[in-house]
Amino acid sequence: MAQDLSEKDILKMEVEQLKKEVKNTREPISKTGKNIKDFVETQAANDPLLKGVPEDKNPFKEKGGCMIS
């Protein structure tokens, strides 16, 4: 698509995108970083990657073993 546009058209699109982006509200990383850290710490008890999945609740655990007779 970009090959079909002139350099002027591409620059217009970039300016329009920048106009949209400048309207976004921004938060300092010092504030958002703390919020993310607090959220992760409060959710850690429910995270199966951190605490593991109980054997009886694991849907991927093999139900039976292989039996050779």
How would you describe this protein?
This protein is mostly helical. The protein has one domain (7-57): Irregular (G Protein Gi Gamma 2). Helix content is 51%, strand content 0%. The protein contains three helices and no strands. It has helices spanning 7-22, 29-43, 48-51. The chain is elongated, with a radius of gyration of 26 Å. G proteins are composed of 3 units; alpha, beta and gamma. Belongs to the G protein gamma family. This is Guanine nucleotide-binding protein subunit gamma. Keywords: Cell membrane, Lipoprotein, Membrane, Methylation, Prenylation, Transducer. Residues 47-69 are annotated as: Disordered.
Keywords, separated by commas or semicolons:
single chain; 69 residues; mainly alpha; G Protein Gi Gamma 2; 3 helices; 0% strand
User: Oligomeric status of the shown chains?
Assistant: single chain
Number of helices: 3
The portion of residues assigned to helices is 40-55%
Q: CATH superfamily, please?
A: Transducin (heterotrimeric G protein), gamma chain
Low-confidence stretches: none
Distance between the termini: 64 Å
CATH architecture name: Irregular
Rg computed from alpha carbons, rounded to a whole number of angstroms: 26 Å
Query: What is the overall silhouette?
Result: elongated
SS elements, strand count: 0
> What fold name stands as the CATH topology?
G Protein Gi Gamma 2
Q: What is the makeup of the main sheet?
A: none
* Overall pLDDT score: 86
Query: Can you tell me the CATH class?
Result: Few Secondary Structures
